[in-house]
Specification:
Blueprint lengths: L1 E4 H6 L1 H9 L4 E5 L2 E6 L8 H7 L10 H10 L6 H16 L2
Parallel strand pairs: 1-2
Antiparallel strand pairs: 2-3
GO molecular function, one term: toxin sequestering activity
Family: Belongs to the phD/YefM antitoxin family.
Protein name: Prevent-host-death protein
Length: about 100
C-alpha cells in the first residue's frame, strides 16, 4: 500500500491513480496522518454476491411486491416473530417504573 501526501496527490493525481488502476491501494495523508484511502474497484463489482458467498447476507426468498403486500397487511410468514416481539414487549414493560 502506497502512502501519498495530499499535496503530492494534488500535483501528481495521474501518477497516484495509475497505482490504483494497477490494483494498489493508496493512503492519503495530511501532516503525517492518514485522512483517506483510494482503493481499486472490486473486479466483480457485485457486493451483494460477495456478501452472500461470505454468508454475511441472505438472498431474498420472495419478491419485493409480495413483501410489500405482507407489510401492508401486517402479516408475516410465521407467527413466531409476533410471539417473540410480544414476549419482549412484556419483559420491557415489567422493567419500567
Amino acid at each position: 500500500m502506497a502512502t501519498v501526501p495530499v499535496r503530492e496527490l494534488s500535483h501528481h493525481t495521474a501518477r497516484c491513480l495509475a497505482l490504483v488502476k494497477s490494483g494498489e491501494s493508496v493512503d492519503i495523508t495530511e501532516r503525517g496522518r492518514v485522512i483517506g484511502r483510494i482503493v481499486p474497484v472490486d473486479p466483480d463489482g457485485d457486493v451483494r454476491s460477495r456478501l452472500i458467498a461470505q454468508r454475511r447476507a441472505r438472498p431474498a426468498t420472495q419478491g419485493r411486491a409480495e413483501l410489500l403486500a405482507q407489510l401492508r397487511r401486517g402479516s408475516t410468514d410465521t407467527d413466531s416473530d409476533n410471539a417473540v416481539s410480544a414476549a419482549l414487549q412484556d419483559l420491557r414493560d415489567g422493567e419500567r417504573y
